[in-house]
Design a protein that fits this description.
seven-stranded antiparallel beta sheet, Beta-galactosidase, Chain A, domain 5, mainly beta, 22 strands, ten-stranded antiparallel beta sheet
């Protein structure tokens, strides 16, 4: 059996307290080498036996807003890529071989002042090395998640970092369009709205308002749906059982993005819903790294009476604007 190097700083073998952020090694649903990062208000679980993956994110003692595939939990070493659930980093644009390279081996866990870094070995298939860094606020409900890909090959490769978060069933995703204007004052196109061959805008899971795009996860609908768009202030919220997960990232309108210019994409089927942000296409020289930084937050008691511009402006938009800092 191939030996997998698995290095863990000795300070992670027991609870490590830096300010109010704690990192502790723990078992999670069959994986014996997971790491819990918490500030007492929120918590996330990073897998050490596979990955890099964040398999859980929620309030302490609360629901996991991330999808889990029970039949894939606690396992490792599979030959093919496993969905598993949670948050991961991929290379874009998507292709069925290199993008879907397995992440089924143990990762290196490195302690930081505010969390940790989970780093996979170099992928034999792609010669890429992926890592996710967790930087949690000492108190409150926010965390910064940096998704990185390093080119370990001998050649310059062109790709974009792609951060995909799989959400638990039964919720609703919301994202915003760029600022709207009026005709005839605003005559130029402002942003793409990108379809896939299987996209069906007549599907009742979609809803469009002037300012927002809404996608509902339906456990009884097996048809896949996907859309993408560009927004300099790229964000998504997922509402589930009165709680909201929000992720926010900055996009650069002067650069080229994958999939006809998408900084955001969302996908759903009957098993899960994904909210995804993408970085720009970059020619990455050997030894160099690209990064997609997201700011995450959780909120409780988020209730909307209806999905209209007015209600989303009132309830959701202030929560989004409080997450991270986007220039």
């Amino acid at each position: 059996m191939r030996r997998i190097a698995f290095f863990v700083f000795s300070m992670l073998m027991t609870t490590n307290v830096v300010a109010a952020v704690q990192v502790e090694k723990t078992e999670y649903k069959g994986w014996h080498n997971c790491y819990r990062v918490t500030n007492g208000d929120i918590e996330l679980i990073v897998t050490g036996d596979v990955g890099p993956r964040i398999i859980r994110f929620g309030f302490v003692g609360g629901q996991n807003l991330f999808k889990e595939f029970p039949d894939q939990l606690g396992k490792s070493g599979e030959e093919k890529f496993q969905l598993r659930g949670g948050d991961r980093v991929w290379k874009a644009p998507e292709d069925p071989v290199a993008t879907w390279a397995p992440d089924n081996v143990a990762v290196e866990i490195q302690s930081t002042d505010s969390g940790l870094i989970a780093r996979e070995p170099v992928e034999p298939l792609t010669h890429l090395q992926k890592e996710i860094e967790i930087s949690m606020a000492a108190t409150g409900n926010s965390v910064t998640v940096s998704h990185r890909i390093t080119n370990r090959s001998l050649f310059t490769l062109e790709f974009a970092p792609w951060a995909l978060t799989m959400m638990a069933q039964g919720g609703v995703a919301v994202t915003g369009f760029p600022p709207r204007g009026k005709h005839p004052l605003n005559l130029e196109a402002t942003n793409p709205l990108v379809m896939w061959a299987y996209t069906n805008l007549a599907d009742p899971r979609w809803k469009f308002t002037k300012k927002y795009l809404i996608l509902r996860q339906d456990t009884n609908n097996t048809e896949a749906q996907k859309l993408g768009l560009f927004n300099k202030d790229t964000w998504a919220a997922y509402l589930l059982n009165g709680e909201a997960f929000i992720k926010r990232a900055q996009a650069d309108a002067t650069k080229v993005y994958p999939d006809f210019g998408c900084s955001f994409e969302t996908f759903t089927n009957n098993d899960f819903l994904e909210v995804e942000t993408l970085g720009p296409l970059t020619k990455v020289e050997p030894g160099h790294t690209v990064e997609q930084v997201e700011h995450w937050a959780l909120s409780r008691n988020v209730r909307l009476s209806e999905f209209t511009d007015q209600e989303l402006d009132r309830v959701l938009l202030p929560l989004v604007q409080s997450v991270g800092s986007v220039d």
